[in-house]
UniProtKB/TrEMBL annotation:
Hydrolase in keyword set: yes
Entries under InterPro entries matching the protein: GH
Biased composition, class Basic and acidic residues, residue ranges: 50-60
Name the record gives this protein: Glycogen debranching enzyme GlgX
Superkingdom, taxonomy of origin: Bacteria
MF terms (GO), sorted A to Z: hydrolase activity, acting on glycosyl bonds
Protein keywords: Glycosidase, Hydrolase
Signal peptide extent: none
Coiled coil: none
Region called Disordered, residue ranges: 50-76
Organism per entry: Xanthomonas perforans
Amino acid sequence: KLAEFATRFTGSADLFDRRGRRPWASVNFITAHDGFTLRDLVSYNEKHNIANGEDNRDGSSNDGSCNYGEEGDTDNAEVLQIRERQMKNLLATLLLSQGTPMMLAGDERAQSQGGNNNTYCQDNEITWLDWENDP
């Protein structure tokens, strides 16, 4: 696993080193507009898309997420500490990897969409960025 990580971390030459392409030709990301936010990636094991009106059938059921013992928001200090550390680990990996980093707006502030990983129809507080409150 470490060798695979090292290969990806250094630009995935096995996949992209064709016709002289350099590592910065790849775009690296953890989260995007489709799927969980960074905070939700470390807070939910399951999608929570009820607000979309499709009986939670929409969106991916395989986001590679982990809630570290409690689903969603919690007051458990241990779980919160692990989640914060994991978000920092993921962001550090993204920013230090060779290639062009792409970040989802709001991930820098630990924005949550309440576990909704398919917010295409949410023009409300679920997707709006809250710039008033500190994360």
